[in-house]
Write a structure and sequence with these properties.
Pathway: Cofactor biosynthesis; pyridoxal 5'-phosphate biosynthesis. By secondary structure, this protein is an alpha/beta fold. It has five helices and twelve strands. It has a single domain, classed as Rossmann fold (3-Layer(aba) Sandwich). It is globular, with a radius of gyration of 15 Å. The structure holds glutamine (GLN).
Length: 196
């Protein structure tokens, strides 16, 4: 059985665990870098990216996370997690993990649109997917190797590059598990190849 970890330093952790388990995987709240050895894929949850980055450094997660990604293990960054995986941030000199060739703008939808729900066409999902956005970022620009999965008003809100998946929205806050299912498929594929 697959084990999906959720980085448990800050943010929307419990909701992700619930959904992962509803889809038949084991969920593990990852609070120490050593736990990365026991998971097949990792979710970086929504929350506050600056705070999460501080905690990543404080608990010695930075290098282990890069290594986890170098091993081609799937990582799914949602909302603040999308900010963490970007290799460029439009309003800051320093990026965080730099795992995806995208430039991300934080809090990109402005105050009036602090949080909202929108029906999105998502590549790989047949009928519109209702996505919840909370002080969400979006991808301003993406390299050619990045596969765009969804856009909202012309802005990229979901994308994939190799082992990295990112969404500006919060899939754990809706009953629709189809987006998480896309990640679980990536984890299944990667677990297959590492088992060979
Ligand atoms: N605005 C937050 C950030 O940039 C993300 C918000 C969220 O994860 N819901 O860290």
């Amino acid at each position: 059985n697959l084990t999906i970890g959720v980085l448990g330093l800050q943010g929307a952790v419990a909701e992700h665990i619930k959904q992962v388990e509803a889809l038949g995987c084991n969920g593990l709240i990852v609070k120490r870098p050593e736990q990365l050895a026991f998971i097949d894929g990792l979710i970086l949850p929504g929350g506050e990216s600056t705070t999460m980055r501080k905690l990543i450094d404080r608990y010695g997660f930075f290098e282990p996370l890069i290594e986890f990604s170098n091993e081609k293990k799937p990582i799914f960054g949602t909302c603040a997690g999308m900010v963490l995986v970007a290799n460029k941030l439009s309003e800051s000199k320093e990026a965080h993990l730099g795992l995806m060739n995208v430039c991300v703008k934080r809090n990109a939808f402005g105050r009036q649109r602090d949080s909202f729900e929108a029906a999105l066409e998502v590549k790989g999902i047949e009928t519109p997917y209702s996505a919840v956005f909370i002080r969400a970022p979006y991808i301003e620009s993406a390299g050619e190797e990045v596969e765009i999965l969804a856009q909202y008003n012309g802005n990229i809100v979901a994308a994939k590059q190799g082992n990295i998946l990112a969404s500006a929205f919060h899939p754990e806050l809706t009953a629709d598990t189809r987006f998480l299912q896309l990640f679980i498929e990536m984890v299944k594929e990667s677990a297959k190849t590492t088992a060979l």
